[in-house]
Amino acid sequence: MSPPRSKIELLVRGQDGDGFETRRVESSAAYLQLRPQRIPPEQCEIAQLPSGVRRVPTWVLKNRTTERYIMLTEPEKFLWEQMDGKTSLQEMGTAYVLRYGAFDFDVIPALIAKLRRAGFLTMRPSSRLREALAKHRRNPAARAAESTLRAIERLTVASRKAHGKFELVYRSGGFLLFSPIAVLALAVVTVLGARGAVELWNDSGTISASLAQHPVVAILLVKVFFWLTVISHQIIHALALVHYRRRVREFGFTMLHGFIPTFYADVTDIFMGTRRARIVSSVSGPLVHLFLGMLYFWIASLLAPGLLKAFLAATAILQIQSLFVSLYPFCFLEMDGYHVLVDLLGMPTLNHDAVAFVRHELWDRIRTGTMLNRQELIYVAYVVLSAVSIAAFVYLNVVLITHAGGS
Amino acid sequence: MATAADIAFLRTVLLFKEISEPDLHALWPWLREKRLRAGEVLFRDGDVGSEMFLVRSGTIVISKPVTGRVEQVLKRIGPGDFFGEMSLFDNLPRSATIQAETASLLLSLNGEDVDRLMQASPRAASHFFHRLVQEFIRRLRDTTDLVAEVTRWGLESTGLDVEQSSAGER
User: Is residue B112 packed enough to be buried (19+ CB in 10 Å), middle (13-18) or exposed (0-12)?
Assistant: First the structure.
């Protein structure tokens, strides 16, 4: 019998340096957060072998530096493509379940061992900026930048005990958000807000003039107020998990990519729920923006001209934009709508795979006149729709600004 | 003046197990009480200090800084245990951070007190140092075990199969 998994006990001090809490961390918990990084594309190549008698697709992976070859099955190739240094083993497991409908716990460790032996994994920093800084550590400026980035990344406040609090919120009335009452309230506010938005549109000249009188205050107020509503988006996601009896593994605040302040809720446990649960969980967050946006439009339409009216109108526009960006799946961002789409398509790595296909394979296929299969057509459609959507989004914003400026 | 409960407590401390009762009565007035609130830090890794402490009540966590606000818990000790004894001899900065997990009552003893014990009762001091050496050896063994355990944790958390890797390299 193998020995139990090793545990170490860690003490984490509070921000003020006074209080502390201790946690026993099992090695398996750290293993799930491992982010394997494959060697750079120029150092390896992959080729599909002709199907054998069993008609099971197989790939051969070559390490150009060591001249070593290993065979990959289709699931192994799928996992290999996830090993970008950013995806944790836990996320890979989730993607695997979504793609294959089942998960064999031995597949990932066995593949990692195979790849390590053949030198296909590296410890290269995942961020290109971090990689560049690491290369130039002799330079004091690079060293300072690296230290700054590290310090900023530590600005993370997270709680792994948030689930109990969300359960309490849910029991204390949060459950109403997932009842017909909430749907009715949303519908009423949406109708009132839409009517208000039409009235405000006709009065946009006065509104933009009010904003123009206090431009700095207006921009700061709108941005800060909007940023604060992001937390409600994440709270609703977390409550949706409680509603479907799944666990909120973590809730917190972090500096995304080192410079975007954001709140987050770890909702990965919803993958163990039904498809309906996953879709409701994904859609519930963006609906907060619809509710708030329409509410602000409605209130703004009732107010007399002035900074408050203009502020509410501008905030409402931002909320509606957020609703659109969150729900619209074709924008290269893996937001809530994207997760619904990939769930429906059964293609959990659509964004990554589609971009890779268009960048590296599509032009060869067009040149050689090879027909695209259904999956490749979806890849192309996703990239085209995303590119067109982003262009349209930018154009729409320019028109809005021009309209407001011209009025 | 030591009460029967005080002497009974000293008897639970490994260092004083073999010391006679009159010597314990003589030693008691030299011990100074120190109370800690839950979460309070007594001293930090790197601080200067020259006292050892006995835990009369409560739970004490001994930790070593690892990164940022994270520290590794080396040991959790309770009534009858002691810590900080290294500073009686080496005069070097503290090697770990000590904090109270629950409200705690400590008794402190410094180098001068130990010198006084040696002069007042060489026999009692001999028992004290004998037990101290035994404790040092036990802690050294514990540290060796901890190093092995942390190495095992590291191997398991990275999934590194050293046996397979070595076989593959041969």
Answer: exposed
